[in-house]
Amino acid sequence: MAARHIEADTPELRARWGSFAWTDENAAQAEKIIARYPEGRQRSAVMPLLDLAQRQVGAQTGTQGWLPIPVMEYVADCLAMPAIRVVEVATFYTMYNLAPVGKFHVQVCGTTPCMLRGSDAVMATCRARGMAVGQTTPDGMWTLTEVECLGSCATAPMVQINDDNYEDLTPERLDAVLNALAAGTTPEAGTQEPGRHTSEPVGGPTTLREMVDANHDYRSDW
Ligand code: FES
Fold first, then answer.
1. pTM of the entire structure?
2. Atom of ligand 1 nearest to the CA of 111
3. Cβ contact 127:112 at 8 Å
4. Ligand 1 atom having least distance to the Cα of 110
5. Quick one: three-class SS letters along 23-63?
6. Listed residue (57, 172, 169, 56) closest to 118, CA to CA
7. In the list 107, 126, 133, 216, which could disulfide-bond 210, CB 3.0-4.6 Å?
8. What separation in Å is there between the alpha carbon of 127 and the centre of ligand 1?
9. Strand, helix or coil at 185?
């Protein structure tokens, strides 16, 4: 289960983030997002605006980004809604970081399909590289979080790192992904299983084989 806490609301936090405001580019983007919703329903934009704010904080800190309380209050002001309603949304979804994170946020799925397919070894690989759950490494590179199912069970075990999923992991494959990120390159996201394209059966189709090369009408087979 993801351990989450809201970063304390301190004078230092206020001094750093109390004057948060959209960049010109994000102000235009926020306006566009809010305009998607009917008059009187602008609060529905809270999730994309929180995401936008987190990305702006990320750009300003060289990290994946997070949501200091003054930034959540800023989003609340933009939408004319009580700040507590924004905090309720931000605390519900693990996609929002409530405390500072590193450049790369490694979210390891530990739910049953991933656990049965090797998430313990995936987690051990992260620990062997100096990561600890709920913490950021001293060099600011990695934050490790254990999360619940991220919806890629067919390619378990998997991790999400910032915006990308890396799937069909083994300790060696995860090491290769982390080494590539540390070296400043972008490893190919998705399955890391050689020969597998997405989530189709490993080794090729096991059903509807006649459909592989051309459309096939199965009705006469029934
Ligand atoms: S259980 Fe890990 S992605 Fe679903």
1. 0.89
2. 1
3. no
4. 2
5. CHHHHHHHHHHHCCCCCCCHHHHHHHHHHHHHHHHHHHHCC
6. 169
7. 216
8. 20
9. coil
CB-defined site of ligand 1, < 6 Å: 109, 111, 113-114, 149-153, 156, 158
Taking the centre of ligand 1 as the mean of its atom positions, its distance from the CA of residue 197, in whole angstroms, is 18
Measured CA to CA, the distance from residue 186 to residue 165 in angstroms comes to: 12
Is the backbone of residue 190 left (phi > 0), alpha (psi -120 to 50) or beta? left
In 3-state terms, what secondary structure has residue 174? helix
* CA Rg value for the chain: 21
Each residue's pLDDT, cut to its tens digit, for the chain (222 residues) gives 556 899 999 999 999 999 999 999 999 999 999 999 999 999 999 999 999 999 999 999 999 999 999 999 999 999 999 999 999 999 999 999 999 999 999 999 999 999 999 999 999 999 999 999 999 999 999 999 999 999 999 999 999 999 999 999 999 999 999 999 999 999 999 999 999 999 988 888 888 888 888 999 999 887
Q: Write the DSSP symbol of residue 136.
A: B
Quote the ligand 1 centre to 105 CA distance (angstroms): 17
